[in-house]
Every structure is written in C-alpha cells, then in structure tokens.
C-alpha cells in the first residue's frame, strides 16, 4: 500500500499515512446477524425434515422396538420387513396383496390422465392463442372461473354423467375426470405460453402453407418442450396425490394408491403396525418426491403456475 | 387453410373449433351445467336418488340446525384463520430470510418446499403418527422426565382442529414462501438502495415500503390460500376421520358423507351449495378489484 | 486541474472491487473537487455504476479507501456518508405520496417536524414540484418522478450528489429538458456531483471533468474539450463523438517533420503536437480525424493538408449531411452543410488541419 502511495501526489500520500479503515468492512462469520439468520433457517429446516426422518426411521424398526423406544431414535436393528409387508401383503378389507395393487392402479390412472389432459389442453391453448374464433374467450373465461368452484359442487352431476355413459367406477372414468379438472390450469398455462411466442413465427408458417395441425406439430410442439415438462410435473404430482376423485369415482379393486394407503393405515381391525404404515406412507409419497427432487426449479415454476388449482 | 374461399361461417377455423370441443363441453356441461344442477337439486328432498321434488329452503334449514354442520363451519373458520395468518407470516418471513443473499439458498428452499410435493393423505398420516400420544411427541417428552406433559391434539376434541392445522402448515407454507420469494425478487433493487441511502432500517423498509409494494402478490396468495381452505378434505380424513366424535369435521367431508354414505343427497347438495357461496364471497370482490378496473377493449 | 485539488470533496484511493475471481474495479484513484461536476462515462459493463455504488456504500469494496469531505467513510453506512443518490429507475416508494417520499428518511432519522417541512418546501420550490406533493408516484410522468427522486436527495441536505444514469428511462425530449435543469441545479446549489451515464452528450454538456472508463479502469480524466480533442487512446477517441472519428491505418515515418503514410497518401505532421517523444521513432500507427474537422470544396483549399477523392455515399441527416469517401484506400466520413448537393461519384477535394488529428500507436492504441 505504501509504495503505491509514493507514486501518487503528495497530498494523497499525506492523507494515506493517517490510519483509517481500508478495504472491505470486516465481517465476522459469527456476527449476530448471521447467527440469527442461519440459526433460524436451520431450526426451521430441521422442523421440516423431522417428519420425513421419523417416517424413515419408524419404517425400519420392528414393532417391539417401536413400543419400547422413542420415535426419534434411529433403529437399533434395521429391518426391511415392514416395507415388504406394506408392498405385498398388507390388508385392506378382503384384499391382502398390499399397496402394490394401488401402486399399479395409480400408474394406470396417472399415465393416461397426464397424456390426455396435456394433449387436450395444449391443443386447446394453441387454438386460443393463435386461431381465435368468435366465442372462444367466453368459454375460456367460464373455464377459468370454474377452476374456483369447489369440486364438491360438481361431483354428483359427474357421477350421473359417467353412469349414463357406463364408465362410472372404471379407470377410464377417473381419467376423464382428471382431464376435466386439469383443463383450466393447463389451458391457461399453454395459452399464455403460446401467446408469448413471436407472432411472426406463426405467420411465416401460415405463409408457407402449414395448417392448424401442421403448425402445432412441427413448430409449436418442438419449441415448447419446457412448458410441457412443467405441465407433466404439475399433472403427475397432482394426479398421483389425488384422493377425492379416486374415492368417488373408483371401486375398491381400482382404488388409487392414496385411497388404499388411507384404508390400510386407518383400518380399525387388527393390531396397528406402525412400521408397516410408515413404510406404506413413504412408498406412496415416493413418486411425487422423486419428481420433486429431480425437477428442482421446474417444479417451482410448475407450482407457481398451478397454485391456483389449490 | 380453410379461409381462402370464405365458405360457410361454421366451417371457418374448423380445426380450432374441433380442438376446443373438450373445453366447450367442460365449461358448459360440467362447470355451468353441473353447478346449476347441484344448486337446483339442493331445493329438493332427494334422498338415495336425485328427484325433482321441490321443498324450498328445507334442506338449508336442516343444514343450519345440524350440529355436525355447525361444527364443520366453526372448524373451517378456525382452520382458515390459522392457515391464513400463519402461512402468510411464516411464508413471508422465510422468504425474507432466504432473500438475504445467503449461502445454500437452494438447499433451504428445497427443504421448505418438499412437503408440498406430498399428498394430504401422506401428510395427514405422518402427523397422525408424530402426534400419537402413546408413541409420538408426548411420549418422548414424558420419557425425558416431564411426566405430566400433555400434547395430544388429535385425541382432544377441543384442540383437534389445531392439530390438523399444524400438518396443513407444514405441507403448505413452502408454497407461500416460494410465491413470496418470487414477489421479493420482483422488487426493484434500486428501492433497497434508495432506502439504505435514506437510512431506513431493514425492518422498516420491509414494513413500510416492500410489503405495500407486494400488495398484488399478497392478494393472489390470499386467494390461493382461501381456495385451498374451503377444499380441505383429505387431510382431515387421513388424520382424524373427523374425530374424535365430530370434533374435526369440515364442510367438504360433510358433503361427501351425505352424498355417498348417508344417502341424503339433498343435504349434500345444500352443503355443497353453501361451499360454493363461500367461495363466491371470497372470489367476487377479488376479481372485481383485480380485473374490474381495467377491462379490455 | 488535477493537481489543484488540495481538499477534495470525494477522494477515492486505490479502490478495487472483485466479485469472486472477476475484477470489476482495479486500484482506482479519483479526486473530486468541492463543487465539481464529474461525469463517469463509459459503455455498459465498464464499472461506472459499480464505482458509484461503492462511493455510496451500497457495495462492499475489496480494497482501498474512500474519503468524503476529508472523512474516511470506507466502512460507513450509506446514510452516514453525507451523500444523496438518484437512481435510473427513480426508486420512489410507490405507496407513499411525494411528500412522504421526501420526508420518510428524515422522519426515520428523527429530524424535527418544522425542519422537515422547511426542507421539503425548499426542495419543492427548487424543483417546482409543489403541486405534486400530495400525489402518488404512479400519478406522475417520468420527468416528474425523476424530479421527485432528485428532491429526495436534496432534502437530505448533503454535500455530495450521486446520479446513476438518471435520465436513461426518459424519452429524448424530456431527457434534454431535464439535463438543462440538472445543470441549473448544480449552478444554484454548487454541490459536488458525480454523475454516471453512457450518453456522451450528457457527459459533454454537464461535466466539469469527464472520467472515461473501460474495464474497471479510468482511461482519461479531463475537461470535456480535452477529452474530445486530445483523447489519450483509441478507445476514448472512438467512444466520444457522433458520427465517430475516422481511423486510418498506416505508418509513421520519423524525421525532422514526421509524416503519416497510408497507401498513396502522406500527411505531414509538422503541426501535430506529439505527446513527449512520440514522433521520434517510425512505427505502424493509426491516424484519427473527426468528421467535422474535415473541410470540403473551397474551404479545403485553405487547409494545410488536401487530397482529391470521389463521393461514395451521401447520408442526409437533416441538420447536416454525412458524406462517405475514400482516403488512402480506406473509407472515411465527413460532414457538410445540408444544402450542399453532392451525388455519388462526384469528384471532390477534402482537406484538414493535422493539428486537430489524433495519432495512435497501432500496437498499444495509445496517443502519440
């Protein structure tokens, strides 16, 4: 510092000799601010992680250990039996083939529902954004307002409709219900995305002679993969986690995983096996959790968009 | 391109209309038709099957004199107030803490948000286990020496709704935090600089400048929380099944039980119409404030 | 001028700022005299706004010291530095009336009510915003908002004003109006002002001295005319002036009278004022001449250097016309009055005074 000073003017050198603060303001890693800030965040983070930890720990203990011990203590003897039992032999009513049945039901519900709802909503959003026709906006507004109507109001009329068509209680019926109730938010998502795409692109394609489906398949679809990923995340977690529609529109042998889980855990007969219950609970939460941890920031975008769905 | 010759109006833009058929059907048949149907049948004495036998407001009179419904409404109000206040406050505080240019921001955000990926059923069952008086928090604290310690919200009818609220907050606050964080990130950084130059302490900057600036974010968040409150159902089913007794019943469960178990459709329709009414009361003023001022065209 | 500053209002000594491995400001020194209007000018990303934020205390510096009014403020909070700041986005508190915007900081600081009222009245009078005091910022035009933002700095009753591109969000007409107002404000208040901009017209019109910055380093710190006429390097020469300075590549030939040579053209540099012994050695160099310093037609004959050429392109700009031609095989432009009618292919004669040119070393880009 001093030799640099000797290069500058005398007046500066004079002032520089006077001692005084220089360089960055000293900050202590353990300042009161940091202790408060990180302390609070860590305590809250532990609170949020605690249930997950307890779930995992409980599912790895045997019942005798659970009765004696403390729910927070790690398992003395790790056993995977509860997991096996939850998956393969836990009973709901008369069925004793575990959660596996519900898992496969949920897969059979989720996959077609996600595909169908996104297909309908993306094409619809594209029509609303680029091929507007008279009256389209009115229907769209009704659709968005409808998203706020409590499902309970519409449950029973849909039961009647499905019964009339003859698919009440089948997986097909539930897939249609999921597509209907996913429509408002997804259509909004796709419509807004397609509206934000440059109009010139669409015009250029039309000048080139491409039609409604040609533009959708060859131009819009390839350019909007991120929004499709967001929609998939939104729908997979939403449909997998659904309980109400599952319980209303399916029969015991076609119950989705959430409904079956609730029946296993909250069944009144028999001895409560908490370790099996927790293993079953984790198994049910696993699919959305994996989607969450893999998708990261896209999940945040998805829920920000889907938050309206509640 | 069908419009080169301009044929019949109906066939113009035909593909777009075909693509919109599911939307039109959903909007008209399910949303408008279904809602109107339910409201209409709420004035009938339908029991096992819907029947157009009008009885005026009888179902509503019965509804409002049923103690289970009154308990449901009371619970909904308590649960709603708790959800609203605490998820807003906690969500905002967490967002503000995460906005301090901290290290590991992504890690913290991931932890605070993961419960939101879980279903209400999973959430309810986990907290049922944690709050289990024989094995959960109460037992652990008693084992530590405080033998008279009592914490059994799910088995105590006077506080059971608070036990449900704990689980709901755990599940949903992360979302509110994310919305708030997005709102905070939307504040012009120059505002913070100006406040620092003006010598305004951080908490006053938040209170008097930033929070008023985030009004639209708060309103949107409020609507989201409110819509979620009215729908609360799975959580209660998983955690307490409405018990002990009827202490934790909620309107959505009342509707479901009367429609599908009690075989008293008219009651179910009346109760669901009341739910619709409460949503209208929340949504209409908001929509008016949000969109009423700036109508298109 | 530099050496005269015995008691600088703002003094920056060996200031460095690094963001991780990226060095944004490098051992920067700057003394600003009492009452001086300094403009920090440069392209975006040159560190000018960063420097201003460091002076304000809004960014933590990596090394060096900052003095304001002789007081070491390196570790001080912004509010204790005796500065007021005006931002590009105005940064008004949107939910408060203009009056509250002006008074909020003072109230928090516990200034007595009468004093606040007095200061607001004065600021409002100076900036002519009295009728706006009860309005909210959303009800103001861009120009009015920026006036209020200046007012917020004014009521702080400070010695140093910092402006961070205050006019960039305004349209061209308002910008020139407010520019004049800021100049008048400075004349009336006689405060020290440090003003960041990328607009060379603002810099030229407002500044007592301009600091041209690039890559976190001050390239040249001088009076506007000096910067314009005697740029220290090719960057400064090219950054100021519109249309930009013409650059011709060529060779410098040393001798009693050094000569610039480029493909059939040789410009004797007897009248050119070399920096130090820049003219002694022969080397590749770049010859710079501003379009407005090239004469044409009869006026060209009076110039020490003349050349014959043909018109390539004519660009009418309204107030004048820009003509593109070739000199030494390289494209150059010059300005003529708008009423001169020139066509493509016309044979013309151009001339200039080499004393007004700038010569740069082709290797270092520095002025010779």
TrEMBL record, chain A:
Coiled-coil regions listed: none
Chief localisation class: membrane
Keyword field: Membrane, Transmembrane, Transmembrane helix, Transport
Keyword DNA damage: no
Transmembrane spans: 35-56, 109-127, 139-161, 167-194, 215-240, 276-294
Any GO BP annotation: transmembrane transport
Subcellular location: Cell membrane
Any one GO CC term of the record: plasma membrane
Protein name (record): Carbohydrate ABC transporter permease
Organism: Mesorhizobium hawassense
From TrEMBL, chain B:
PROSITE patterns noted in UniProt: ABC_TM1 (PS50928)
Keywords linked to the UniProt accession: Cell membrane, Membrane, Transmembrane, Transmembrane helix, Transport
Domain ABC transmembrane type-1 residue range list: 73-288
Subcellular location: Cell membrane
One of the protein's GO biological processes: transmembrane transport
Membrane association type: Multi-pass membrane protein
Iron is among the record's keywords: no
GO CC entries: plasma membrane
Alphabetical list of CDD domains matching this protein: TM_PBP2
Protein name, per record: Sugar ABC transporter permease
């Amino acid at each position: 510092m001093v030799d640099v000073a000797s290069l500058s003017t005398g007046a500066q050198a004079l002032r520089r000799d006077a001692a005084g603060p220089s360089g960055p303001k000293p900050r202590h890693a353990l300042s009161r601010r940091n202790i408060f800030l990180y302390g609070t965040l860590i305590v809250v983070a532990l609170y949020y992680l605690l249930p997950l930890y307890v779930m995992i720990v409980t599912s790895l203990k045997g019942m005798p250990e659970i009765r004696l011990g403390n729910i927070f203590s790690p398992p003395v003897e790790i056993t995977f039996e509860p997991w096996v039992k939850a998956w393969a032999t836990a009973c709901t009513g008369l069925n004793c083939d575990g959660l596996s049945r519900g898992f496969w039901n949920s897969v059979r519900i989720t996959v077609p529902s996600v595909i169908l709802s996104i297909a309908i909503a993306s094409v619809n959003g594209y029509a609303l954004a680029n091929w507007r026709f008279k009256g389209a906006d009115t229907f769209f507004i009704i659709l968005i307002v409808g998203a706020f109507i409590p499902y309970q109001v519409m449950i029973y009329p849909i039961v009647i409709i499905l019964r009339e068509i003859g698919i009440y209680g089948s997986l097909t019926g539930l897939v249609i219900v999921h597509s209907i109730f996913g429509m408002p938010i997804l259509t909004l998502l796709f419509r807004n995305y397609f509206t934000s795409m440059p109009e010139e692109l669409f015009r250029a394609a039309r000048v080139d002679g491409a039609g409604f489906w040609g533009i959708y398949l060859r131009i819009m679809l390839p350019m909007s993969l991120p929004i499709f990923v967001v929609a998939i995340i939104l729908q997979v977690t939403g449909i997998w986690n659904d309980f109400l529609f599952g319980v209303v529109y399916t029969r015991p042998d076609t119950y989705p995983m959430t409904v079956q889980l609730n029946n296993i855990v909250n069944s009144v007969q028999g001895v409560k096996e908490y370790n099996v219950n927790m293993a079953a609970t984790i198994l049910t939460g696993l699919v959305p959790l994996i989607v969450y941890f893999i998708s990261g920031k896209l999940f945040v975008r998805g829920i920000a968009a889907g938050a309206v769905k509640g | 391109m069908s419009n080169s010759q301009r044929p019949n109006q109906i066939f113009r833009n035909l593909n777009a209309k075909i693509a919109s058929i599911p939307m039109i059907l959903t909007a008209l048949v399910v949303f408008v038709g279904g809602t109107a149907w339910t409201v209409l049948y709420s004035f009938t004495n339908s029991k096992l099957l819907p029947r157009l036998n009008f009885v005026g407001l009888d179902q509503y009179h019965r509804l409002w004199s049923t103690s289970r419904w009154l308990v449901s409404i009371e619970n909904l109000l308590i649960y709603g107030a708790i959800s609203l206040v605490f998820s807003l406050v906690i969500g905002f505080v967490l967002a503000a803490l995460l906005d301090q240019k901290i290290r590991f921001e992504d890690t913290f955000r991931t932890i605070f948000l993961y419960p939101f990926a879980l279903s209400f059923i999973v959430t309810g069952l986990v907290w049922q286990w944690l709050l289990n008086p024989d094995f959960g928090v109460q037992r652990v604290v008693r084992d530590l020496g405080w033998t008279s310690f009592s914490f059994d919200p799910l088995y105590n009818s006077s506080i059971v709704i608070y036990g449900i609220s704990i689980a709901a907050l755990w599940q949903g606050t992360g979302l509110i935090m994310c919305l708030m964080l997005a709102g905070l990130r939307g504040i012009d950084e120059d505002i913070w600089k100006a406040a620092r130059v003006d010598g305004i302490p951080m908490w006053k900057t938040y209170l008097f400048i930033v929070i008023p600036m985030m009004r639209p974010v708060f309103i949107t968040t409020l609507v989201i929380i409110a819509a979620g409150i009215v729908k609360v159902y799975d959580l209660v089913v998983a955690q307490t099944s409405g018990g002990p007794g009827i202490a934790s019943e909620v309107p959505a469960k009342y509707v479901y039980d009367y429609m599908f178990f009690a075989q008293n459709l008219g009651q179910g329709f009346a109760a669901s119409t009341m739910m619709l009414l409460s949503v209208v009361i929340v949504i209409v003023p908001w929509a008016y404030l949000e969109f009423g001022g700036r109508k298109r065209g | 001028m530099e050496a005269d500053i015995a008691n600088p209002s703002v003094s920056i000594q060996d200031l460095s700022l690094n963001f991780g491995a990226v060095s944004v400001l490098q051992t920067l020194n700057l003394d600003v005299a009492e009452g001086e209007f300094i403009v920090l000018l440069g392209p975006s990303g040159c560190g000018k706004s960063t420097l201003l934020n460091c002076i304000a205390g809004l960014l933590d510096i990596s090394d060096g010291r900052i003095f304001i009014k002789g007081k070491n403020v390196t570790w001080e909070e912004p509010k204790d530095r005796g500065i007021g700041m005006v931002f590009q986005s105005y940064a008004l508190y949107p939910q408060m009336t203009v009056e509250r915007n002006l008074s909020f900081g003072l109230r928090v600081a516990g200034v007595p009510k009468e004093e606040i009222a007095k200061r607001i009245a004065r600021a409002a009078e100076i900036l002519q915003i009295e009728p706006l005091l009860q309005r909210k910022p959303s009800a103001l035009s861009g120009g009015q908002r920026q006036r209020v933002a200046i007012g917020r700095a004014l009521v702080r009753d400070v010695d140093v004003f910092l402006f961070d591109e205050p006019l960039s969000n305004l349209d061209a007409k308002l910008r020139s109006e407010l520019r004049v107002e800021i100049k008048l404000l400075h004349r009336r208040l006689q405060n020290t002002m440090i003003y960041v901009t990328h607009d060379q017209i603002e810099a030229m019109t407002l500044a007592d001295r301009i600091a041209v910055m690039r890559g976190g380093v001050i390239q040249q710190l001088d009076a506007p005319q000096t910067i314009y006429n005697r740029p220290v390097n090719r960057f400064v020469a090219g950054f100021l002036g519109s249309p930009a300075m013409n650059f011709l590549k060529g060779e410098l030939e040393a001798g009693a009278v050094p000569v610039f040579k480029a493909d059939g053209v040789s410009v004797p540099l007897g009248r050119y004022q070399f920096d130090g012994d820049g003219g002694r050695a022969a080397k590749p160099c770049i010859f710079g001449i501003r379009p407005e310093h090239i004469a044409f037609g009869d006026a060209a004959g009076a110039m020490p250097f003349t050349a014959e050429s043909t018109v390539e392109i004519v660009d009418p700009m309204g107030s004048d016309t820009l003509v593109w031609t070739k000199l030494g095989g390289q494209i150059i432009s010059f300005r003529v009055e708008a009423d001169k009618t020139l066509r493509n292919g016309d044979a013309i004669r151009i001339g200039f005074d080499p004393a007004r040119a700038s010569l740069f070393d082709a290797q270092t880009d520095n002025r010779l």
